[in-house]
Amino acid sequence: MDEREMIPKNLQRDEEETISLISSLPSDIDFHGRELFKYQECWYDNKTLQGILNFQQGFEPQDTDIIVASFPKSGTTWLKALTVALLERSKHYSHDHPLLLDNPHGLVPVLELRLFTESSNPDLTNILSSPRLFSTHVPFHTLREALKNSPCKIVYVWRNVKDALVSLWYFECANLKIEEERSMLESMFESFCSGVSYYGPFWEHVLSYWRGSLEDSKNVLFLRYEELKTEPHVQLKKLAEFLNCPFTVEEEESGSVEEILELCSLRNLKNLEINKTGKTARGVDHNNFFRKGEIGDSKNYLTHEMEKRIDMIIEEKFRGSDLKF
Ligand code: PAP
Questions:
Q1: Nearest residue (CA) to ligand 1, atom 23
Q2: For residue 7, is pLDDT > 70?
Q3: Can you give the residue ranges of the Sulfotransferase domain (predicted)?
Q4: How many structural domains comprise the chain?
Q5: What angle do CA 290, 135, 115 make, to 5 degrees?
Q6: pLDDT tens by residue, 11-27
Q7: Pocket lined around ligand 1, Cβ cut-off 6 Å
Q8: Is residue 84 part of a domain?
Q9: Which of 9, 10, 74, 111 is geometrically suited to a Cys-Cys bond with 70, CB 3.0 to 4.6 A?
Q10: Could you tell me the distance, in angstroms and rounded to a whole number, from the CA of residue 20 to the centre of ligand 1?
Q11: To test ligand 1's pocket by mutation, which of 70, 78, 270 has the most ligand atoms within 8 angstroms of CB?
Q12: For residues 244 and 242, what is the distance between their CA atoms, to the nearest angstrom?
């Protein structure tokens, strides 16, 4: 018997539909030489797109779900850690706090990259329960379709895209275990500027969540990595209020805000055993998610012309949106 014959009829049809949908989409090649497909205004490889289609089709949202969203390399790991620490703060842990036992990506899995890659009906019973915490890199319009009008809380973190680009370059090189190659940064830069980049164009991404937050500020919070860095107390309290778990006066007086910020600091997370030695389910070293975390680090790598070109793209794309870079 052919393997496909063993798959239930309804799943067989889904798979065929998926393949046919993907092959009908516009496609292009990114800096890796990888084929990307354009779906709902953004670009994905085949595998990710299958995960997105499964997610949109099969996700059964609960009204209490919390979704951490971002363009890659924009502060996801930090925001996941902060969200876990906020929600877990009333429990008394000694050496078994979830952040000591797993990387933030293990605790807050990516919907389309981890949970829904193989099926539109995955087992979600292992998810950190009540409220369930998920993450995604898809833009707002694509996420909203999967949420099917459920009032889940969505927290988006945005970062200066030039810093995100350099961060991605380092990350790719670390994963490939190669020295940082300038030529690779230049190719990635071209992909970024043309918009044909994994989960890009970045401007579609950022603008989708920006508009989402303006339309529904109760359920969509738009945070900036740079503000998290410069005013962490204010931003953490804002996040807590948005998630309906504000700090009490007693908590503030007893240093709970500082405790969470310290637990989730880059220095602390980077030095935890689990992050020095562990790997994600997809085989990425936890360690690769932690580098410098500095504002404006891209200045050290991008030429003046490169910076100017991105600035001009941003100015043009964000014109009329009220979104300041
Ligand atoms: P992801 O998209 O693969 O999840 P993401 O966490 O969004 O990556 O971004 C990684 C960046 O966040 C890295 O920035 P850098 O390359 O410029 O250094 C990483 O160092 C930074 N980062 C990770 N954890 C923290 C943290 N706790 N505080 C501040 N920055 C952090």
A1: 290
A2: no
A3: 63-321
A4: 1
A5: 110
A6: 444 677 888 899 999 99
A7: 70, 72-78, 81, 163, 167, 170, 264-266, 269, 289-293, 297
A8: yes
A9: 74
A10: 36
A11: 78
A12: 5
pLDDT greater than 50 at residue 40: yes
For residue 1, pLDDT over 90 is answered with no
Q: Which residues carry out catalysis? A: 137
Q: Which residue in this structure is represented by tokens 């001009």?
A: 312
Are 81 and 89 in contact, with CB atoms under 8 Å apart? Answer: no
Report yes or no: 188 and 168 within 8 Å, Cβ to Cβ.
Answer: yes
Q: What tens digit of pLDDT does each residue of 168-195 get? A: 999 999 999 998 899 999 999 999 999 9
Q: Is 9 part of a structural domain of the chain? A: no
- Asked whether residue 323 is assigned to any structural domain, the reply reads no
Q: Which atom of ligand 1 is nearest to the CA of 168?
A: 16
Helix pair angle (161-176, 304-318), 10° resolution: 120
Count of other CB atoms within 10 angstroms of residue 9: 8
Q: Checking DSSP bridges between strand 42-44 and strand 35-39, what pairing results, if any?
A: antiparallel
pLDDT in tens, 80-89: 999 999 999 9
Assigned domain for 300 exists: yes
Indicate the DSSP class of residue 108.
S
**SS3 at position 35:** strand
CATH of the domain at 300: 3.40.50.300
CB 138 within 8 A of CB 203: no
For residues 70 and 189, give the distance between their C-alpha atoms in angstroms, rounded to a whole number. Answer: 19
Nearest 5°: phi and psi at 119?
-155, 155
Ligand 1 centre to CA of 197 (Å) is 19
- For residue 75, report the distance from its CA to the centre of ligand 1, in Å: 5
% helix, strand, coil for the chain, step of 5: 55, 10, 35
Nearest CA to ligand 1 atom 26: 266
Structure-token pair, residue 174: 């670390």
Structural domain span for residue 219: 25-317
Reading the block at residue 242, the tokens are: 């948005």
Q: Is the pTM of this model over 0.70?
A: yes
